[in-house]
Amino acid sequence: MKYKTEIECTSDKIVLDEESKNLIEKAIEAVLFEEQPDFDVFISVLVCDKEEIRSINNEQREIDKATDVLSFPALKFDENYNLLEEISDYDYDPELEAVYLGDMVLCADVAREQAEEYGHSVDREFAYLTVHSMYHLFGYDHMEENMKADMRKKEETVLKKLGLERK
Known about the structure:
Number of helices: 5
CATH topology: Collagenase (Catalytic Domain)
Distance between the termini: 32 Å
Number of strands: 5
CATH class: Alpha Beta
Order of helices and strands: EHEHEEEHHH
CATH superfamily: Metalloproteases ("zincins"), catalytic domain
Shape: globular
Structural class: alpha/beta
Number of domains: 1
Largest sheet: 5 strands, mixed
């Protein structure tokens, strides 16, 4: 399984250096290693500020407030995290030579605030939000307790492998 990402920062107020991009890539790669999809994937990542994520959240979810991360899965999964439909030519992008898994939008401002609030590094918060979003792209959710427990367990497993587990 191969993967491709496109990581873009749209705010001139945010500095997204190579180290931060590499951390996002490593977090994505760690989730893919755990989940082992049987197809090559493409993930789009947008890093933005509070104003932009608030606007996206309002436009897409009709929630007029900033949040830490938004996930927009391209594939549909059932309650057991299995694909509802076979991967088709429609899902496969020949230019990318991969299946489009979805988009994630990370808010750098909120990530920094939450890192301070929770008493851990900004790197850990960025990695957590990336991992969290990846699991949403794979059909996980935290609306029901059993799914929330599954998601949290997987997130912590990946963060531990990245050396960024909770202290």
